[in-house]
Write a structure and sequence with these properties.
The chain has 140 residues and is α+β, with helices and mostly antiparallel strands. The chain has helices at 3-11, 41-47, 52-61, 90-104, 133-136; strands spanning 13-18, 29-32, 64-68, 71-75, 82-84, 111-113, 115-117, 130-132.
Amino acid sequence: MNTNEAKFHESRRAFIIIMHHTSLPQNPGLMVAPVNNNISHEQMLKCVNFYGRELQDTLMKSPRGYCMNGELCVYQGVSGPTWELVQSNYKIVQQYMPDLCALFNLNDNSNMYLGVRVGEVGTVWERINKTTIANFMHMR
């Protein structure tokens, strides 16, 4: 991990909602990076023994993101120019929203983004599909 990448990762707090399609754990669950830690989503998953296809499938299919400066960014994907939260995963993210709000001190008026445009590693990628948490909670 280069210096810029480490600084970016440390400036935000990452999370992953592990979906039921993976073998670990059997039920969906929320993984959250420690405060002031530069761990990447991939590294978080490797810490709980996700490797190879399971790692790639989880990054592709499971919602993940970060909170930075009081704003939440949620996405999924590993390839292509944009990584967006797919509509079929809205419900699972909505189920974890009370936990995310409590962990990150967010409220209904907090901004939320439902995707990113892939950019240079170590920079804040352009966040897209802006909404508020209250609006997102009503999306289907």
